Amino acid sequence: MNKFNYYQPTEIRFGQGRIREVGEVVARWGRRCLLVSVPVFPEFEGLYQTVNQSLEDSGVSVAHFDGVIPNPTTEEVSAGARAAEKHRADVVLGLGGGSSMDTAKAIAVEATHQGTCWDYLFFRNNQPTEKTLPVVAVSTTSGTGSQVTQVAVVTNPEEKTKSALYHPRLFPKTALVDPELMRSVPEHVTASTGFDVFAHAFESFITPNSSPYTDLISLEAIRLVAAYLPRAVDEGSDLEARTHMAWADTLAGLSIANAGVTLPHGIGMAIGGSYPHVMHGEALAVVYPAILRYTYQTVPDRFARVGRLFDPALGDLPEAEAAAASCSLIEDFIKKIGMSLCFADLKVPEEELRDLAQASLVLPDYKSHPRVVDLDGVYELLKESCRK
């Protein structure tokens, strides 16, 4: 067994009804809270009232920044940072999916540092300091795992680039994971975010940066996604399925916080930066079949283990055959949850794929892929993803 490190400072409060603890949790970190969310919509109104009442009962003064959008941009983060400064916030509460939680983390940095959040991307010399506001995260989707990671993904529209702040100070202090909050998530959003859970767990498992610890939790996350994501997509009110998916999401987040991700996420980030209308799960699903076929022979033992989670009968096959079969099983799973896509479905022009390939190599994720690819290789994978 090789040496490895595992770090996770976030307190996790998991289970049905935990949302009622939000006021008490936030009050541990501050008395002036900036609540960060998407604009309130009818299905969100009851949750917002519950959260606001809990904060008020705990003596927390609240200002609400509701400017979060999918694929949050530097502009939204800056607006939220100004709201935090105006309120003199000493704690930030991210309430929602990955976009809300990532925006909350980026606001926690920009509101307390010179410049903008874009000045504190993972590769910059400047990094978040102890001035960073504490963040509490409440997840309402099962997708990004942001409630337990040190990552905040942000898009810069001017540069058409999607990148990330990455620092231990961005780990939320507490993550409240209440599966009851996910029951109203629409079918396609459930499928898209749920596939992101699979991708996090799968890529954490196949990367050379994995460890016995992340292997353990990644495989369990994959097992849960295989069993329960189709149920959650088919029947959103299925609380058992939602609970298992919420736990899978948390496990996958714990995995990527320590092992990281690989080539699909580098491509997915490039797609999101250039085409912000594309959901992150969609950006992953569109390239996954081609990348699976490109990769499986490099780490057949890993692919075989994943394949056997989808079909235990693969246990009777030699490893190489089970690895090959895993690609078809995962593709079938993508179809089953309604995520079989091509670039035409996502309105990504084929003539722009060369530029997209170049952008896919900006982040270092591809370097952690079991079979490292060059520019021409990424371009070929993208062209293959133009057809289902």
Q: What's the SSE blueprint?
A:
Layout: E1 11-14, H1 22-27, E2 32-36, H2 42-57, E3 61-65, H3 74-87, E4 91-96, H4 98-110, E5 135-139, E6 151-156, E7 161-166, E8 174-177, H5 187-206, H6 212-234, H7 239-259, H8 263-274, H9 280-295, H10 300-310, H11 319-336, H12 353-359, H13 375-384
Parallel strand pairs: 1-8, 2-3, 2-4, 4-5, 5-8
Antiparallel strand pairs: 6-7
Helix pairs in contact: 3-4, 5-6, 5-7, 5-9, 6-7, 6-10, 8-9, 9-11, 10-11, 12-13
Description:
- The protein is an alpha/beta fold and 388 residues long.
- It folds into two domains: 11-182, Rossmann fold (3-Layer(aba) Sandwich); 187-384, Dehydroquinate synthase-like, alpha domain (Up-down Bundle), CATH 1.20.1090.
- The protein has 13 helices and eight strands.
- The protein has helices spanning 22-27, 42-57, 74-87, 98-110, 187-206, 212-234, 239-259, 263-274, 280-295, 300-310, 319-336, 353-359, 375-384, and strands at residues 11-14, 32-36, 61-65, 91-96, 135-139, 151-156, 161-166, 174-177.
- The strands form two sheets. It has a six-stranded parallel beta sheet, sandwiched between helices. The protein has a two-stranded antiparallel ribbon with strand order 6-7.
- Strand 4, helix 4 (98-110) and strand 5 form a beta-alpha-beta unit.
- The model has no long low-confidence stretch (mean pLDDT 97).
